[in-house]
Every structure is written in structure tokens, then in C-alpha cells.
Amino acid sequence: QMQFVESGGGLVQPGGSLTLSCVASGFTFSDYAMNWYRQAPGKERELVANITRAGDNTIYPASTHGRFTISRDNVKNMAYLSMRNLKPEDTAVYYCDIPQLVRGRGTQVTVSS
Q1: How far is the C-alpha of 46 from the C-alpha of 56, rounded, in Å?
Q2: DSSP secondary structure of 43-112
């Protein structure tokens, strides 16, 4: 069974940092580029970071560029999202995704004082 399981979410104050993790199983993780997405209540899903299969190239939208860092460890079948200078508008469920293949259930990130 192909799956992603995310962890590391929680409550953090504005300006704080958090690192999310995602473990892949049931498929060859290193064969695929992958994404971190987020979705807040009442809002559309938003891509927050993309990384190539080998981890040698990354893409970020303007909303996360310079604050978020995506990385991966293909030996451990893990992906990570390091977030700093968090803002209330970063509050959302964050999940790992490979289009048309597998998506995790997500982990909640809440940025609030």
C-alpha cells in the first residue's frame, strides 16, 4: 500500500520555526519528485514546495520562498519541510503529495500567539 505519513505539526508562535517530516512506504520513493502542499479551512490547496527526485533542485512559491526549505533523504524514504519566521497565514494542514500517485493525510500547523 502506497502511503505518506506526515508528522511534526503543532502550535507555534508567530516568528517561530517548525520542521515537518514525511515518511514514504509502499513505493520507490526515489523514483519521484514530490511536493509539500497545504490547505487551510475554506481555502484552496496551495503548493508550498517541490523537490526533484535526487533532491538537487527545489521550487517555492512567493508565499514560502526564503522561509521554507524542502529536503529529502532517499535512503530513509523521508521528506522534510523546515519552516521559519512562521506567520498566522501559514496555519493549515500540511501534507506530502506525488500527483496522481499518493497523498498523505497531513499534519496540522497552527501559528498563533
Answers
A1: 22
A2: S--EEEEEE-TTS--EE--TTTTTTEEEEEETTTTEEEEEE-S--GGG-EEEEEEETTTEE---EEEEE-
> What's the length of the chain?
113
Distance CA 80, CA 23 (A): 9
For the stretch 61-108, pLDDT in tens is 999 999 999 999 999 999 999 999 999 999 999 999 999 999 999 999
pLDDT at 43: 95
